[in-house]
């Protein structure tokens, strides 16, 4: 868990910026807002805990989630 010097927990995303659509790096903020997308996010931290690292979900079985979503979708349709 990561806390700031003020004792607050952090919600952060880490974006991989070495991709062609994020070049040149003249204005990093503009690149994030206008050029990046969800596929550029490498790591996600919520409430000071890493939820996704290196594009892999931590403590979540993605296959099980997909199976449940398909089951629910069948019921709804």
Please provide a written account of the structure.
This protein has 77 residues and is of the alpha+beta class. It has a single domain, classed as Roll (Urease, subunit C, domain 1), CATH 2.30.40.10. The protein has a four-stranded antiparallel sheet with strand order 1-2-3-4, with no helix packed on it. The longest helix is centred in the C-terminal third of the chain and has 15 residues. The protein is flat, with a radius of gyration of 17 Å.
Concise overview:
This protein has 77 residues and is an alpha+beta fold.
N- to C-terminal separation? 41 Å
Task: Look at the structure and name the CATH superfamily.
Answer: Urease, subunit C, domain 1
Strand order of the largest sheet: 1-2-3-4
Q: How much is the radius of gyration in Å?
A: 17 Å
Helix count from the secondary structure assignment:
2
Low-confidence stretches: none
CATH architecture annotation name: Roll
Q: How would you sum up the major sheet?
A: 4 strands, antiparallel
Mean pLDDT: 89
Strand elements, count: 4
- Counting helices, strands and paired strands, the structural category is alpha+beta
What fold name stands as the CATH topology?
Answer: Urease, subunit C, domain 1
Just give the CATH class.
Mainly Beta
Give the count of structural domains. Answer: 1
Fill in the keyword field for this structure.
77 residues, alpha+beta, Urease, subunit C, domain 1, 4 strands, flat
Question: What is the topological layout?
Answer:
Elements: E1 12-15, H1 28-35, E2 41-46, E3 49-53, E4 56-57, H2 62-76
């Amino acid at each position: 868990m990561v806390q700031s010097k003020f004792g607050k927990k952090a919600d952060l995303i880490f974006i991989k910026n070495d991709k062609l659509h994020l070049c040149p790096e003249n204005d990093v903020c503009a690149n994030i807002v206008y050029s990046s997308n969800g596929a550029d996010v490498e790591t996600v931290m919520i409430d000071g805990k890493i939820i996704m690292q290196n594009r892999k979900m931590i403590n979540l079985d993605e296959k099980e989630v997909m199976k449940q979503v398909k089951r629910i979708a069948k019921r709804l349709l």
